[in-house]
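Q: Here's a chain of 114 amino acids. Please give me its 3D structure as tokens.
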Amino acid sequence: MEIPEPLGSLFLELADSRQAFAVLGQNEPGPWLFPGGRAGQAMAASHLTVRLNRVGIRARASRNTALLDLAAQIPASVLSDVLGISTTCAVAWSHDAGNTRLGYAADFARREIL
């Protein structure tokens, strides 16, 4: 994944300095950028949210903005598959984003294959 600067170098620094916090079992950070308290698992979303809130980052607002943007661009069925959310939830996000996507199949068929 390519991440633009200055975040790219910050992410690399974080990846190089991450530590696992498991009390029992293997104490390796594994593939996670934010290792959790259990060996081989990521940090719980609720714990990461608390830590981000402490430094003034409101993750939910950013998540919702990103989700609305994505829901405006793709059909609810694709949104559901990509994010692993229910079809009902995906339809609600698409509706909130103002996405009817009636022309999605036609747009997709006209795309140039690279």
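Q: Can you summarize the key feature?
A: The two ends are 19 Å apart (CA to CA).
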